[in-house]
Amino acid sequence: MNIKRVMIVGTMVVIMSFGSTALSGSITSACPALKWSFSTGNSEKDDLLEALNQSSDEELYESLYEGKSLHDIAAEQGGDINDVIDLQVSQLAKQLDDRLRSGSITPEQHAAHKAELREIVEQSVLTSFG
């Protein structure tokens, strides 16, 4: 799992915890102690790394491990936190759309989660995990 996926999954956990409790039955564990693997096999530059102006997953991992938030990392490296927010909102909105299509959430849940998506992502980029 690459760092971008870890951050997105973490953000989804935040979204689901603030969202309706109807999803609580499908969440079995929200353990923050994940094993991270950096071998993606993808030679393209990662959108998240680019937005944060980071050169590698390892560099981003180290910054997060030091307790910095995504906002802190972007500010220190001259990255654009608005690009990070837009990227996460876009990817999470796609995940919500996929869940709606698969039937794992109702149209009402989809609308409610999508309505609060940007606010929750904006709050999450300020959160440090250290």
TrEMBL record:
Q: Which UniProt keywords apply?
A: Signal
- Top-level lineage group: Bacteria
Q: Which residues form the signal peptide?
A: 1-22
- This chain belongs to the protein called Uncharacterized protein
Species of origin: Paenibacillus albilobatus
